Amino acid sequence: MKAIVNVYLKQGVLDPQGKAAHHALESLGFHGIEDVRIGKQIVIKLDSMSKEEAITKVKEMSETLLANTVIEDYDIEIVQ
Amino acid sequence: MKAIVNVYLKQGVLDPQGKAAHHALESLGFHGIEDVRIGKQIVIKLDSMSKEEAITKVKEMSETLLANTVIEDYDIEIVQ
Asked: Which of A34, A72, A76, B36 has the greatest CB tally within 10 Å of its CB?
């Protein structure tokens, strides 16, 4: 069983890494970009358990360690 | 139009950031984790264009700047 946690900055929080990538892309000749934002994708391989159990567990992991909920949001996807 | 690029280390490439998160989660009392790998999720807002055009453009961006294709793989998803 695999859980994918996408952690991204909340709307309104400045993203300097994204801004840098945006400028770099433009200076490389890519146009028509409105905005770039960079987050983390965390893939967690879990021992077999029910989907509900996995969601509860991974949510707790996200709140405790994976996301800084003051400035970041996250979503969880369970695959397999 | 929004493109999501997930950039992750190729299989076999050591992921020290993922290993650190794995150990931290275990020391916090989370068990039943087999593996943790951490990648990047890049969200690019694009001016309106066709889906095909967007895919071609974002693929070029990924190859040029967003992913280090020696050690990283990526996948592209177009939404909206």
From this structure: B36
- Overall pTM > 0.90: yes
Residue B45: give the domain boundaries: 2-79
Q: Give SS3 for A78.
A: strand
From B25, B30, B49, residue closest to A32, measured CB to CB: B49
Please count the structural domains in chain B: 1
CA atoms within 13 A on the CB side of B5: 27
pLDDT tens string B7-42: 999 999 999 999 999 999 999 999 999 999 999 999
Q: Quote the minimal CA–CA distance from A69 to chain B in Å.
A: 17
Interface of chain A toward chain B, CB-CB under 8 angstroms: 6, 8, 18, 21, 24-25, 28, 30, 32-47, 49, 57, 60-61, 64-66
Query: What's A14's domain CATH number?
Result: 3.30.1280.10
